[in-house]
Amino acid sequence: MVVAGEPSGDQLAAELVRALRAEAAPFAPVFFGAGGESMAAAGVELALDLTRHAVIGIPTPGQYAKFRRFRDDLVALAAARTPDIVVCVDFFAFNGSLAERIRAESVRQAGIFQNWRPKLVQYVSPQVWASRAGRAKRLESTHDLLLSILPFEAAWYAQRAPGLRVAFVGHPLVERHAKEKASEPSDSKSEGGVAPENSPPPELLLLPGSRAGELRRHLPGMLQAAKRIEAETGAKLRMVLPQESLLEQTRPLLADLPRLGVQVGGLRDALTKATVALASTGTVTLECAWFGVPTVALYKTSPLTYAIGKRIVTVKFLAMPNLLANEAVMPEFIQHEATPENLANAVIALLKDAPRRAAVRGRLASVVASLGTPGASHRAAHAILSLA
C-alpha cells in the first residue's frame, strides 16, 4: 500500500513503485493506495486522489473533517486488503496519523486466525529537526523504517530516536537529473561585472510555487518586483508554472508585464537559461541549486500559520540549500519581509554583480554534492524489500 498526498510526493511515489517492481522482479508486488496521476500511470490502483485536496498551512474545520474521513477510509482499506508493507510518502501531517491508525487496527485484529502486522515505512522525513522534535519519538514507536533524503537526518535521529531504523537513500533530484546535468547557467556579464558589447540581456526566472495558495500570496509581490527589475536592468522575464490549472489564476495579474513569458512545465530548460531566479522556498530551490542558478527565495503564508510557525520553528533558514549549507547562500525574505522592494533590491544586486553570482554557484555546487549519488529510488526499494 502506497500513500502520497501532494504532487511532489505523487511523483516520488511513482518513481519508488517502478523501482520496487524492478528490484522485486520476477515477483512484482501488487500496489494500491492513494495518490495522484503519476502513481496511477505507474500502475498503482488508486482508491483516492489525495493530490487534489492538498492544503497549505492550518486546515479549516471542514478540511480537517474531510482528511479525517479520508484517513479512516484508507485504514479500512488497509484492514480489508492486509498489505505486507505500507509506504507513506512525505505528507506527514496526514500520513503520520494514518500509520498510527493502521498499526492500531492491526493490533486490534490480532488473534489466532489473524496475524496481520504490516511493516510501516515513511519515505521523506517530516522536518522534525526544524520544529516539534518530539515527533521523532512518535515515528520510533510506530514505524519500522524511515527513508531519509537529506544527509544530516540519520545522525539527528540516531541521537533522539535510536530505536528507529533510518536509511539515507539520497535525494531524488539527483536521480532525476543524473543524465541531464545542466550546462553553465546563462550569464551575460563577464567576471569583472561588465556586460560585453551586444551581449544578450540577463534572464530572471520567476517560480512562485506549485499551489494556488502560494500563487495567491507570492505572485503579486513578485510581479511588482519584476516590473522594477525589468525597467532597471533590461532583464528578460520568464515564469514557469508546474500545472496548467494555475495558469488561469495568473492571467489577471499580467497586464503590466506584457513581455513576461509564461509557460507550464519546462523547468529544466528555463533553469539552464536563467541568470537569476526569484523562487518560493520549496523543493524548487534545490532545482535552482542543481542548475547553479543564484536565487532569491521568499515565502508567505496566512497570518495565523506564520504566528504559530514563528514560535515552533527552530532552524535559521527555510530554503533547503541554505539549511544544507548552514548559511544564506540564497537571500530569504519571509512573510512581511517579502516586499516588492526587498525582492527587487536583492535580485538587482545579483544581476549587477557577476563575481558574486560566480561565488554563489560555487557554494550551490557544494550543496548539490551533499545530496548523494543517483539511485535514490532503487536504494529506497532495496531497503523496503529487506523488511519483507
Which structural class fits the helix and strand makeup? alpha/beta
User: How many beta strands in the DSSP annotation?
Assistant: 13
The helix tally amounts to 16
Assembly state (oligomeric): single chain
Provide the CATH architecture of the largest domain.
3-Layer(aba) Sandwich
**Mean of all residue-level pLDDT scores:** 90
What would you call the shape?
A: elongated
Rg: 22 Å
Topology-level CATH name of the largest domain: Rossmann fold
Biggest sheet strand line-up: 3-2-1-4-5-6-7
- Terminal-residue CA separation: 13 Å
Query: Largest sheet, if any?
Result: 7 strands, parallel
What does this entry look like structurally?
- The chain has 388 residues and is of the alpha/beta class.
- It has two domains: 2-170 and 372-385, Rossmann fold; 203-369, Glycogen Phosphorylase B (Rossmann fold), CATH 3.40.50.2000.
- Helix content is 46%, strand content 15%.
- It is built from 16 helices and 13 strands.
- The protein has helices at residues 7-24, 37-41, 61-81, 92-109, 135-142, 153-160, 172-177, 212-233, 247-250, 267-273, 284-290, 303-312, 320-325, 340-351, 354-369, 376-385, and strands at residues 2-4, 32-35, 45-49, 85-89, 119-123, 145-148, 166-168, 203-207, 236-241, 261-264, 276-280, 295-299, 332-334.
- The strands form two sheets. The chain has a seven-stranded parallel sheet, with helices on both faces.
- Strand 2, helix 2 (37-41) and strand 3 (45-49) form a beta-alpha-beta unit.
- Helix 1 crosses helix 16 (376-385), helix 3 (61-81) packs across helix 4 (92-109) and helix 8 packs across helix 14 (340-351).
- The longest helix is centred in the middle third of the chain and has 22 residues, at 212-233.
- The protein is elongated and about 80 Å long.
- Mean pLDDT is 90; it is low at 189-194.
